[in-house]
Amino acid sequence: MKTRTIIRFAGLVITSCLTVLSAQEAVPVNPQHPDRLPDTFLGRRMAPQIGCWFPGVHEVLEPGGFKPPLDALCRSGAFDLLCVSSRSTHNESDSDSSVAFLRQAAGYALQKYGVRLVLDAEIRLSRKSFFKAHPQCCQERLHLVEQLQCRGQKVNIALAVDALTDHYTHNYRYEVLGCRLLKVWAYRKTAADTVDAASVRDITAEVERFTADGGRCEIVLSGETAQENRFVCAAVAFAFLYPDVHSDEALHFERDLISKHQQINAAGFIKDEWGFPPSYTWATEKNEYWFSPAMMRRYAMISGGRDLADDCFLMYRSQTGRAGDRSQAIDRLNRMNQARLLEFEQQVYELSKKYWGEYAFVGTHPTWYPYPGKNEFRKNGLMWWRHPRDYAQTDEVTPFCCRTGMAKAAAQPVWYNEYYQTHPSHYIYEHWTCLLAGGRVNIHPFYPKSDEPAEAGDFRILPILRGGADRIRSRTRLLNFIMEASLQCPVAVVFGHWGVMNWTCPQYFDSLQAAITLCNELSRRGYPADLIPSSEIHTVGVDGKKRWLLAEDGRLQYGRQPYEWVLFYGVTESDRADIDSLWGLGDKGETRRAILPPAMDQSAWAQRVTEDLQRRGIQPQTVWVESDNRWKGSMYRPPMSGLARFTDGTLLWASGSQEEPRGKTIRLDKASVLSNDGRQTFEISAEAVGVLACRFDKEDGLVALAASDLKFFHAGGMNIDTADCPTDVVLWKDHSGVWQGVFQAEENRLPQGLKAAAEKWYFLKK
Length: 766
Fold this sequence. Notes:
Elements: H1 2-22, E1 27-28, E2 40-41, E3 44-45, E4 50-53, H2 57-61, H3 67-74, E5 81-85, H4 96-113, E6 116-120, H5 127-133, E7 138-149, E8 155-160, E9 176-187, E10 201-202, E11 207-213, E12 216-221, E13 230-243, H6 248-260, E14 268-270, E15 288-291, H7 293-302, H8 308-316, H9 323-356, E16 361-363, E17 393-395, H10 400-409, E18 415-419, H11 424-435, E19 439-443, H12 462-476, E20 491-495, H13 510-523, E21 529-533, E22 548-550, E23 556-558, E24 561-562, E25 565-569, H14 576-585, E26 592-595, H15 602-615, E27 625-626, E28 636-637, E29 641-645, E30 651-655, E31 665-674, E32 681-689, E33 691-696, E34 702-710, E35 712-715, E36 718-721, E37 727-733, E38 739-745, H16 752-755, E39 760-765
Parallel strand pairs: 1-39, 4-5, 5-6, 6-14, 14-16, 17-18, 18-19, 20-21, 20-25, 25-26, 38-39
Antiparallel strand pairs: 2-3, 7-13, 7-15, 8-12, 9-10, 9-13, 11-12, 22-23, 23-24, 27-28, 29-30, 30-33, 31-32, 32-35, 33-34, 34-37, 35-36, 37-38
């Protein structure tokens, strides 16, 4: 009996092997580099797999120094693109040596491995060159300091400011170059600590002495004209080694800088976390404002001749009878700054397409504060959604409702989160949880310090791949062949954009946090929601189309996402016109709308909306869970395993595990699965590992399938059985109704069990 069993088993093995050996070869998806995804495939743009490379001093300066890190990173199939940012400022990005380094590195990576570089060479990496050409075009920060001056008393006011630093300042910080005195005002205050507007006067002429030394200065104010006790406020502008955002010279310099790099065979260009200089303090007193002569001119032009310094004083200290003027000044400054920062972003996007082609990848994320907060007015004014990108890109712990909302605004459905942590297991978790929200991970090397023992030549990234990230990415990239839309989010939560950054509004910042909490409450009931700023009503995407529209079926739609509900929260006078426009757009539509009260109960509203969605047949997804990081309690995300629904009808099952990074078995046994709107029922039997996705037409026929280690699939008229040779498979019907297929394996041998499933097969090397 045992002998017969062994012979029978051996016969099965031989039969299986002969089947594989006799199978036909297929055309490689990417003939030159069979293990890489091309920019496009059969007319479809392919979402690339991305990582970060930060060459150090010796790699930049030594001949051929780029080869060891590129050999290490590119041997893996985990990257199609590497976002390269030199953290060495010994040779600035506009130097011939820097351009030569990038040209040689890009050529080496592309020719040898088929990996393309995305260049980070923007203006902050060429500050010395910029200031040599334009020494007066430095970004200033206006400091306002108030002091009580008693009658006849001389006043001494001292100020000190330190250099600023961020990830671009490794060898030289944003040093303080000097300072200048703008104005001094004198005034009285009311019993409510409000400035008496009628008493304000300019007393700059009463300054006896102003001395400055780098980041320190002293103001001596005469007491001879102080006939009574009064308050005085001095405005001093400190200049930093940072290009003046509002200067034409800065915009033109970066244009020429990008042009200088067009000779490099690259994948595109990076504008990383662009905005005003880094600000780590909350500026709770609102006594610091970005400033420059160019800003003063622009502000005067848009405000009918108002003086920016005077309005900064008004923003700092409320004045009697001028509450409306104060609020308008804050909004005006925020809008002006965001518009200007977007000019740089738009220039990068347009020049990248001009020099590197239609499919140029433009990076990276605008989320310098990854969790939106009250400090946004000091960086880029929450321009996250306006950011001109083909792919939405975020950073670290950006709330998932922001990620999915930004993805709806972008041209492509996939979004990326640039992520770093200290151990490979964190990256495993991030990959799987992002997947079920329609996202991918841009792998950043270990930061700030790895828990892993340092190894020579691991470049702080190889342990992440060995830990399982490469196995996950080999599975998730299969989805790129069939995914045409982003995550299904039936609810939009629209927050008052300018009001959340206006400290005169009662719900300053709190309304944004409340809106995020509402999104969390919905997602933990199985209905993810998109968070969108009210200002988006007037915007168009990079495709030139309006983002908000009334769809043919009567629903309010943002990007490619039609909504069952749109909830407005944090409505203030700052955003009234935007909210009214968006509300009016849906007046004759089918989308349910509500303006939520200031003291809303997020849980109650989420339950109300959820019950309505259920009554109307809108199907839930796997409920989201609390994030297990330092934002626990304030951010929800998908679990590592579950079901996600996409707006094109795609159903995605994922089964992730930190113990088994490649994923666990997904098995459906005649499972009845409803369509997004509950009008169709699909009976599915399948077994795969890690990833399974499928999409059906209105007649219940299968139109797309992607699965890793697929053993069998029976649904929608498709019957596949590859139990003896589990294979990574992608299938879809093209526009003429013909089945196309891609299989991923070590060898280009199509298993016999797949041959009949498609008329044309392509090969992707595992």
